[in-house]
Amino acid sequence: MSPRKSYYTFRLALLLTAVSALTLPATGFAEETQAAPLIIETAAQKPQAGALDLVTCMRMADQAHPEIGPARARLEEAEAIIAEAQANLFPTVSYYAGYNYWDDDFKLKDIALSPGTKGDIVMEGQSQARAEVSINWPVYTWNKVQNGQEAAGHELKARELELVRVRENAIKTAICAYWTLASALEAQQYLEATVNELRLFLETATADMKKGMKNAPEKDVIQIKTDIHKMEAWRETLKRWEGTARQALSIATGLPDDQITIVDTIVAYNGVSVTFDTCLHAAYTNRADFRALDERIKRAKLEVEIQKKINFPNLELVAKGSGLEDNYDPSQEFHAMAGIQFRGKLDAGINNAKVEQAKARLNILEKQRFALQEDIRLNVRDAFLRVQEAYNSVTQFNFARTQTMHKLEVVRSGYPMMLSNVKDVLETQVERRMQDKDFIFSKLELIRSLALLNLVCGTNVYNFATNETQADASAPVPDKTQEVKPVMDTQPDKHGAVIE
Questions:
Q1: Residue 398 main-chain phi, psi, to 5 deg
Q2: Among candidate residues 219, 202, 178, the one with its CA nearest the CA of residue 465
Q3: Less CB within 10 Å around the terminal CB: N or C of the chain?
Q4: Is the pLDDT of residue 258 over 80?
Q5: Would you state the torsion angle of the CA atoms of residues 492, 494, 497, 499, taken in this order, to the nearest 10 degrees?
Q6: Residue 471 in 3-state DSSP?
Q7: pLDDT value at position 21?
Q8: Residue 262 has what DSSP assignment?
Q9: Are strands 117-140 and 92-114 parallel, antiparallel or unpaired?
């Protein structure tokens, strides 16, 4: 080997050694708060007019998701139950009115018509009109009515929380659909960049082959054309992926898929700094379905108390008036009365059965709560580990991708000096393409894992609007279930599905 060739070989080896000496960054899950977000070296995209950002899609999904309509209808039904329970404290008005007529002739014999005179009376038909009205006003009900109102209030609260859970699912769906579409667009950018680079290199390699350069054999130049053709074929796959993601976002937001244009074409992410205990505490504090089950347990306890007292008579104020008009007796008058009374119904056998049924329903709900509590713990653990694994994968794939890009720079810079050949450049270029793919999919998996972690915790452990961990993910979400009407403004939704 000539001294000049040895010098360039040594230089290339030295550069490759420097690249391989790069230290893999720490992948600790809790340490990433100090790490800066990884930068994608693709040029920033200029947002298109009318393009949707993530927050807008989240807000639209909060109103347009198909499950929100039925959830609101169930909430309206609960509001009607509240009104019915409140009506039990109002007075009850009963009334009756009737008119009877008999067309038979009546004959009364030996009727005293006057002193010392008797005779028969013949009447052609008989008519009678009667009207009656009564008012009953409960004064004391052994708290049965009050307990019924409170139980209805707990059911209303439970259904409000169910609506919150549906909204959280809708927002999670929008987040995943949005970033899936962004991933498809990012993958297309990387593919086009790689194809363009290979096309430029193909021109250089073809010229060198014609010159008879040893580092540009014909078979390797032909391989460049083959690889370019394969990558161009991937465009259709990526387009189909983009179309599927666009349809998913269309379903989530309610917009036609041909009107879906998003601002982000690169998946953005950051590190997460939370512990499992923090996430678990946040879930037990904020999960809407867990809180809804607590409300139904409270309702079931009140229903047990109501059934125990159902046979107790109510103390009522009563007022009644009646009148009768009869063609036989024109002296009938209107009569009225008022007083106080106890009214009840004694049916001990059925009542005891209803008490046992109410206790059984309470027992079922308490067991469901225990099962849900355990299920939440398992879900939080799985989601937490999934986020941890996904973030480590992103970090590792990004590091490998960075190394490959440095390696590509080395072999590309060494090619004109005969220190590398077409095969080296081509293999490194294809390797980078595969690293791009792995990096994109690992980022998408991280996004989906974070969205799932938010859902199972019932609050924003990771705030997608700002791409950062919430300051205190375990803090209770303020109770604003009375604001679950579909009115979207600039204020955050404080049900754990925070939109900022």
A1: -65, -40
A2: 178
A3: N
A4: yes
A5: 0
A6: coil
A7: 37
A8: B
A9: antiparallel
Residue 5, token pair as written in the block: 């060739």
Average pLDDT for residues 481-494, to the nearest whole number? 33
Cα three-residue angle 185-191-192, rounded to 5 degrees? 90
Q: Which of 353, 373, 374, 368 is nearest to 296 (CA)?
A: 368
- Report the alpha-carbon distance of residue 59 to residue 253 in Å, rounded: 8
Non-local (6+) Cβ contacts of 116 within 8 A are none
Class of domain 3-88+142-311+347-483: mainly alpha
CB atoms within 10 A of CB 213: 16
Name the one residue in this structure whose structure tokens are 């019915």. 84
Query: Cβ distance 275 to 469 under 8 Å?
Result: no
Nearest Cα neighbor of 458 from 291, 210, 219 is: 291
Write down the pLDDT at residue 464.
Answer: 87
Phi, psi dihedral angles at 464 (to 5 degrees): -70, -25
**Least confident range of 39-43, 49-53, 218-222:** 39-43
| pTM score over 0.90 | no
C-alpha torsion 483→488→494→497, nearest 10? 120
Domain extent listing, the chain: 3-88+142-311+347-483, 94-140+317-345
Q: What is the mean pLDDT of the chain?
A: 80
pLDDT in tens, 363-391: 999 999 999 999 999 999 999 999 999 99
